[in-house]
Design brief:
This protein is an alpha/beta fold. It contains 19 helices and 23 strands. The relative contact order is 0.10.
């Protein structure tokens, strides 16, 4: 079913991405939860993803060839009257691009192995299978392990038709990992391992999930490959983004009167998470109980618990919350038990002074981003185990607190002593970041992630290796200085001593012993992710490096394609950090640093990092390309690079970065 011609597009470090250049790519989207009886963030994100694909009529790389997406959704639908509802729903939905599969309502509301994932597969009708095969998808996106059995039925049908000579091979599966179930329940390991083995690509929500998948599972048909997951943060859903932008517009000064728009009074201390044990909402209830003891509630602080769940666990927490807040005016309005739409949530977030995200670990925590979009910062657990804190970092959209080791009394102290000006400052930064990323951009990045070759061809690896070895590299020993930047390219031979330029800003630098690493977070997995996404990733990389090497002063780095015949041309530029190390106490300590740098590189989707060194009395630097993953070992090379006097225009560009 290759009705597209393919075009090679140069991306990160010369990697080749295969881009579809005709008008349409067909995507089969399989998700247990979608729009029928949505009960968790999975259904919300599934709907966001589909909308993003349908709304994206632009090209990935700003080329002349536009691309649109045709999508067919297969999802579960809870029902008590399967046979009566099945036929009418099939006929009704086929034209809408949604095929719903009836599953027992008694098993609805769960995503773990007690859900109706087996019925989801077995209840796909023959008519639906025919429609799916007729659709001729180019790729399948499967949400979580619960989509695998459905995919296997579809694959089997393709194979049956292939044997009869009527069908192409089944489309490849990309695993959209919305939640790593094995993190909380080891009994899901075999289910998630099967999904990984069946998938060509893995896309997850945060770096912590990518780390766990890499460390806990194996990839490849032979079970010997490292699992390399692309990390894509989920976007604000369309209706939340619209309402958040409208709320921001109402707060802006009027162009006619120059008066500031009306702002709601922010006095709410909110908690908007599912009342289930893994979300640890009892921490918020304990906080409210402690603050109530201190008589901390009043005009400037009012607790709000959004709690539509009705389980025994949830009802117990709601009872405790009502008891703690019974003396607050309008106490009956503080525990909200109805399911809220985007507009209603926006109303609460617009009143929120601080949103408390109470769990120690969370795959993402979309309510943190939603709150930020309406100008409400969140409090999250420190340690970086809440995925949304990768986008909204500490003091840049969120505050952090050590839930693991500090008491509820200490948490109450933090809440009552927080500075109002700091709240506003953190909220402003978080709002800008939350509003900058939408469903369309998320779908576009998924499309790029799907097109990364699982096993790169020899030609592609060779070109990528050459790009690394022949790049222009610029670095400095400190981040701020523009005068101490060394710019170098590969030596052209034994008589090439480079240009007579100052190195590292001092004449004594020619005898300086220097070792260090150059690492970037730009364009993970060879995707052109854009300036905004790269800037956010770079800030997260800085945080990770400072956490790993607290006593090291980071410098800055830049790598760029370089052609001595056309030195002004800069087809790609990537910015990052220089991590200096001058001497190691032991060989073990050197290897430990190397392994940590490579781990960070993997976590940020990098194919390789640079290790640079220079011995006393030498002008040339030895530059080694060090692959971050074992299956990219063909990238490894060591070359000599020497300082260069590059054209002034290009040098200015390098210094400005």
């Amino acid at each position: 079913n290759t009705h597209f011609r393919e075009k090679k597009v140069r991306s990160k470090m010369g990697a080749l991405i295969m881009k579809k250049t005709k008008k349409t790519i067909k995507v089969l989207f399989i998700s247990y939860e979608y729009t029928f009886g949505t009960f968790s963030g999975n259904g919300v994100l599934a709907a966001s993803t589909v909308r993003g694909f349908l709304n994206d009529d632009s090209d990935f790389d700003d080329d002349d060839d536009a691309m649109t997406t045709e999508i067919l959704v297969v999802c579960a639908r809870p029902t008590e009257l399967e046979e009566e509802l099945r036929m009418e729903k099939e006929d009704e939905e086929e034209d809408k691009g949604v095929l719903s599969v009836p599953v027992p309502k008694s098993k609805w509301g769960r995503l773990d192995k007690t859900c109706a994932y087996e019925e989801f597969a077995t209840n796909v009708s023959e008519k639906q299978l025919e429609a799916i095969v007729k659709f001729r998808a180019d790729v399948v996106l499967g949400v979580d392990w619960s989509s695998l059995e459905v995919y296997e039925r579809i694959r089997k049908r393709y194979q049956e038709e292939e044997e009869d000579g009527f069908s192409p091979p089944p489309p490849p599966l990309t695993y959209l990992n919305y939640r790593v179930f094995t993190l909380h329940d080891e009994s899901h390991r075999a289910l998630e391992q099967r999904m990984i083995t069946a998938s060509t690509h893995v896309i997850c929500l945060c770096i912590n999930d990518a780390k766990f998948l890499r460390d806990a599972f194996v990839g490849g048909d032979d079970g010997k490959e490292m699992v390399v997951a692309v990390v894509l943060h989920p976007p604000l859903r369309e209706d939340v983004l619209r309402d958040a932008k409208n709320a921001l517009a109402r707060e802006q000064p009027s162009p006619v009167t120059s008066t500031t728009g009306a702002k709601k009074k922010r006095n709410a201390l909110t908690c908007v998470v599912r009342l289930s044990k893994e979300k640890e909402p009892e921490r918020f209830v304990e906080l409210v109980e402690e603050l109530a003891k201190r008589d901390a509630f009043g005009d400037t602080l009012v607790p709000i618990l959004v709690a539509p769940a009705t389980s025994e666990f949830a009802e117990g927490l709601k009872k405790r919350f009502r008891e703690a807040t019974k003396n607050i005016p309008n106490a009956s309005e503080l525990c909200i038990e109805s399911f809220l739409n985007a507009t209603q949530l926006g109303e609460i977030y617009s009143r929120t002074k601080l949103n408390v995200h109470p769990c120690r670990k969370d795959a993402y925590g979309m309510t943190v981003i939603e709150a930020a979009a309406f100008g409400a910062p969140s409090l999250v657990c420190s340690g970086g185990k809440v995925g949304s804190s990768e986008l909204l970092m500490e003091n840049q959209g969120v505050f952090s607190f050590d839930y693991e080791n500090k008491s509820v009394e200490a948490l109450a102290d933090f809440i009552t002593n927080i500075d109002e000006n700091r709240l506003e400052e953190v909220a402003k930064i978080g709002r800008e970041r939350a509003l900058a990323y939408d469903e369309t951009e998320y779908a576009r990045l998924i499309s790029k992630g799907m097109m990364i070759p699982k096993e790169r061809g020899v030609e592609t690896i060779r070109e990528l290796a050459e790009s690394y070895a022949n790049a222009l590299i610029a670095f400095s020993l400190d981040y701020e200085s523009r005068e101490s930047v060394t710019i170098m390219t590969r030596s052209r031979g034994k008589d090439d001593d480079g240009d007579d330029v100052n190195i590292i800003s001092s004449s004594s630098a020619k005898t300086l012993e220097l070792e260090g690493w150059i690492i970037t977070a730009d364009n993970p997995h060879s995707m052109n992710t854009g300036i905004g996404a790269n800037a956010i990733a770079k800030k997260a990389l800085e945080h990770e490096l400072l956490d790993a090497f607290p006593r090291v002063q980071l410098g800055r780095s830049l790598t760029s394609e370089y052609d001595s015949d056309d030195p002004d041309e800069m087809k790609w530029i990537e910015c990052g950090y220089f991590v200096p190390f001058i001497g190691y106490k032991t060989e073990e300590s050197k290897m430990s640093v190397e392994q940590r740098v490579l781990e960070i590189g993997r976590n940020f989707g990098q194919n390789a990092v640079y290790f640079i060194s220079r011995t006393s009395g030498e002008k040339a630097f030895k530059v080694t390309v060090v692959p971050c993953c074992a299956n990219m070992d063909a990238l490894r090379s060591t070359v000599e690079m020497v300082p260069r006097k590059i054209p002034s225009i290009r040098r200015q560009v390098v210094l400005d970065y």
